[in-house]
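Annex B, item 7. Sequence and structure tokens for protein A, then protein B.
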Amino acid sequence: MNIAIFAGGNKTFTASRLAVKLAETLRGQGHEAVVFAVKGKIKNKAQIPLVEYAAIAKPKTLEGLLKKQEAQFVISFMNLTACQTAIQAEIPFIYVENEGFKEDKAVKDKKAILKKAQKILVIRTSEDPLNKKPYAGLKVQEVTNPAVWVEHYNYNKPDCFKKENNIIAVGQLVKESGFDNLLKTWARLAPAHSSWHLTIVGDGTGKTALKKFIAKNGLEESTEIVSGDVDVYSLLRNADIFAYPALNPQNADILLDAMASKLPCVACESAPVVALVSNGINGLIVNAGEEEPFTIALDELMVNWGKRVEIAVEASKLKDRYAFEDFARAFEDLLS
């Protein structure tokens, strides 16, 4: 079956990780799956067929793209324009969204659009019962947020990994991501750990301030900030520790993926983190926003190779607890 998978989202979230992985999975099952995304949203374009379009594209334009690909089914990740396009083109579709997802601009007829979906998958982001009011009258199935993981190895390191051992942190370069606190921690640790390097991956308004801190504290040789345009998963598969200093994240997708990829982590306490991390077993949790606890925990992992391995092995079990195969199975009945 020819399947068009739209990777949507909003200003703070993109569904590209799930859209790309689902396309890979469906292609492995014999389907012709192609990802559709606004230009620039998919960072690593080599792994799957990709159709890019302008952010202002209307259903009529997208319908032409679907016809060109001879699409027989549409899967829309948080993209109502894709749903409207499927309706207009008379192509069956599934809509997928995170629990509590909000569009940047409210769509008044959202429910009317979704009533025409074959199914709506709601990705659970909390352990509380789902608020079913927004989905009244719709064909809804709850699914668990799956891990998108990669095999971990330490060779053929990316260029941004400058030293023998590497710490990676990923997120938007804004205050809430906690990278200012991470750099304060790193300024204390780096002089005593000459074989270690910190790579921060992301873009945002705080980038200039972070770079100034790095220069002011002489951290240039042990620290680098790289654009979010890089293939994050190639970095995850080659790193040694994952640092997650986010203060109050709405979700912890990248933490889940890092842990499932067999990376030991240090993370600040928050609801999404506590849902994934058993402190001292499959990761280390510290008080949010406090420099000293993060410093101690990160130092512990850096100096104790055995501890890193022990935690990494336990963390990797999340790939089975949040298996992508289970997520992909939710589409099988309509794609067979």
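Protein B:
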Amino acid sequence: MATTQTTDPDIAARRARVAAMRGTRSNRAIAEALGVGEATVRRDLAALDAERAAAELTPAPARVDAPRHDAPARRLLTLEVDDALADALRILTDATPGARHTLAGYCAAARAAIRTVADTVQEHQRHGRAATASAARRPEVAP
């Protein structure tokens, strides 16, 4: 079965709302909240899952300016997650439509955050601005 992303803004908006409620309500409760049938919610969830699977299988285009490394393509990073980091992962996962609070969801959120920060640093470097810890410090406010 071929999957394609929808171009109908009404369907896309409904699917975004379905994705936001996913995991917090039953399909029936989502359907009732949106004024659609439960079968519509099931189809939307299946379409969202298919789109996500297709996106995961599609290789990202290679960036021309991306640095090349001699290290293997996949490496394992073991990270101890304290309470503050766990809260940050939950916040990032909540902000991602369709994301689930699973280990895979948290890993995806962490990867996205790392990439975003790296892109920001790279952008600053391209424009000649130093991306140092001193530049990132917050100004101190007098009491």
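Comment on protein B: The first helix runs from residue 9 to 21.
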